[in-house]
């Protein structure tokens, strides 16, 4: 596990995380052009709750929020929205949201991200479940609080290292600017969520 202490100053919310995390906007100084309305709505609900008193009783509003970063579980999800344009000597591989962007002809997995050397607060879905259950069982303790949770803090290089340890396969980190990273995604002009 990475140590939280000392990492706070180097926390990075890359564009794909920043748009997911409305509630961290004041903390990260993200670029609003990467925002997503779906997550703005969650943030507005949290803002509304934070403006209300939280009273622990069976008849009045008792609230708390659970704020997270990207899900570790997304390392295994495949996205069809990535395109391997303009990278010679690379072959297209299925695109996990946080996993390898591409696979080279020699079999090396290429993980790409616009996070630089910053640490991203990752959370396992199982841990969100724990804190949700904890919130229900300990209402007085968490009433009126925003639980900002992370299972681990990792850099792109950390993710590559763990991938190599677990799979035994070669992998490299490719540090990109947000503009370079977004060039690999297609259909980004379409909404993430749809009411249809």
Explain this structure:
This protein is α/β, with parallel strands linked by helices and 196 residues long. Helices cover 29% and strands 16% of the residues. The protein has helices at 15-18, 25-28, 37-50, 125-137, 139-142, 156-167, 178-182; strands at 65-67, 78-79, 90-92, 95-96, 102-104, 109-113, 120-122, 146-148, 152-154, 171-175. A four-stranded mixed sheet has the order 3-5-6-10, with helices on one face. A two-stranded parallel ribbon has the order 1-8. A hairpin with a 4-residue loop joins strand 5 and strand 6 (109-113). The longest helix has 14 residues, at 37-50. The protein is elongated and about 65 Å long.
- The tally of beta strands, per DSSP, is 10
Query: Biggest sheet, in brief?
Result: 4 strands, mixed
Mean pLDDT: 74
**Gap from first CA to last CA:** 41 Å
What Rg, in angstroms, do the CA atoms define? 19 Å
Strand content: 15-25%
Lateral strand order in the biggest sheet: 3-5-6-10
DSSP helical segment count = 7
Helix content: 25-40%
């Amino acid at each position: 596990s990475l140590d939280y202490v000392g990492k706070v100053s180097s926390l990075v919310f890359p564009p794909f995380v920043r748009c997911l995390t409305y509630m961290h906007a004041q903390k990260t100084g993200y670029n609003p052009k990467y925002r997503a309305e779906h997550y703005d709505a969650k943030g507005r609900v949290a803002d509304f709750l934070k403006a209300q008193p939280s009273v622990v009783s069976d008849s009045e509003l008792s609230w708390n929020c659970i704020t997270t970063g990207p899900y570790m579980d997304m390392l295994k999800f495949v996205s069809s929205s990535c395109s391997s344009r303009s990278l010679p000597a690379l072959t297209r591989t299925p695109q996990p949201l946080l996993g390898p962007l591409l696979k080279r002809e020699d079999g090396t997995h290429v993980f790409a991200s616009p996070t630089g050397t910053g640490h991203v607060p990752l959370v396992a879905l199982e841990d969100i479940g724990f804190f949700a259950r904890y919130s229900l069982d300990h209402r007085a303790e968490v009433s009126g609080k925003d639980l900002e949770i992370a299972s681990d803090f990792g850099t792109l290089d950390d993710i590559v290292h763990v991938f190599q340890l677990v799979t035994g396969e070669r992998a490299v980190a490719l540090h990109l600017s947000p503009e370079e990273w977004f060039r690999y995604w297609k259909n980004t002009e379409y909404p993430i969520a749809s009411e249809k």
